Here is the input.
Amino acid sequence: MKFLDQAKISISSGKGGSGCVSFRKEKYNEFGGPNGGNGGKGGDIIIKGDPNLNTLIDFRYQQHFKAKNGENGKRQNQTGGSGKDIILKVPPGTQIFNEDKTVVLADLVEKNDQIIIARGGEGGLGNSHFKSSTNQAPRKFTIGGDLEEKKIWLSLKLFADVGIVGLPNAGKSTFLSTVSAAHPKVADYPFTTLHPVLGVVKKFDQEIIIADIPGLVEGSHEGKGLGDRFLAHIERCKILLHLIDCSQDNFIENYWKIKDEIIKYGKKLEKKIEIIAISKSDLIKQSSNKLKKIVKIKTGKIPFIFSSHTMSGIDILISELLDHCKK
Here is the structure.
């Protein structure tokens, strides 16, 4: 399934049906009273979270949604039928913005959260509603309520226990494909991953969800390379797993480039638990102890060292992630 994390759609609720003007027609009563029924309510546009979804791809192919109008009232005090609602299903974690993205209309965090984003017009009143002691034959009625029409943005922020960050080609996708059943594209060149990929890791009767975030670059917090959209996906992660490719000479500098982007992005990402892991250990020439010491001095944290190729250090790293996700 293709991934889509933003979509702009046009929605319109249904108009309310108008009330009816009608009088009873009886064989021996030429002055029958009013019996015009009320109009039916217009259909609503409802947006609902669906735990079976993890992408907004359906909204790439359809962007216009119009609910049914309510039916007009009928004779014999019959109320017109209500217009059918339209329910749009989205993944949990979807935010709804107004057209210019300045106002958050809703944030569907839980799996069954829902909101009426465009309410259908109320049905109009038939003439029987206006009968009184002084007006036995009213011809007054009201038209149905107007519809709501608007354009909105849907923006998805993934839910995951662990968000993997790092420079392009740091080994993030290879790691995810090694520890889970996910199949992100893996190749020996930067920007192989173009959208977030989720994988489920199961061990010791525990299950965690890991999100592989596309590689970040300098300026990501300002939107360079769609980096701000990628960073948005780790806002709801419990832990950040920062992968560093130590086969590069400037690996410490690379670490701080990504760290700086996370800090500048804001949204309290820098306060999340961060685990540093050295990838591609099979390509490292210096000893693990020496490498750990260098990283500890430069970052203040002791890193984990692993290789997705040889599987060395994978179990220890997964156990660490599981322990933190329990808390």
Remarks:
- Helices lie at 58-61, 172-179, 227-232, 251-265, 288-299, 314-326.
- The first strand starts at residue 6 and ends at 12.
